[in-house]
Amino acid sequence: SDADATQDIPQLCHSIIQNNLLPAFQNLLAKLNAGIHPVTSILSDGFMPFTADAAHSLGIPVVLLWTIAACGFMGFYQFKKCPR
Question: CA dist 7 to 41, 51, 70, 81, Å?
């Protein structure tokens, strides 16, 4: 019944694509790598592509899994970039 109950999906996608989460994730990896057990690989959801960028920048192997159904994947794949 609350019109504001859902997030603005285009804005959420835009935020992820524009690498707003990349610096925070790179900082987390740096902190983890400073410890006794460094990060040796990353397993990430394909909806979070910034994890692959971070892994490549640090030379860490990465595997992206698409955990959504195929029809959901195709919906995201066909999603056009919205001008903001």
Answer: 31, 22, 22, 17
The predicted-structure confidence for 58-68, as pLDDT tens digits, reads as follows 999 999 988 87
What residues contact residue 22 under an 8 Å CB cut-off, 6+ apart?
Answer: 50, 53, 54
- Global model pTM greater than 0.85: no
DSSP letters of 17-69?
Answer: HTTSSHHHHHHHHHHHHTSSS----EEEETT-THHHHHHHHHT--EEEE--S-
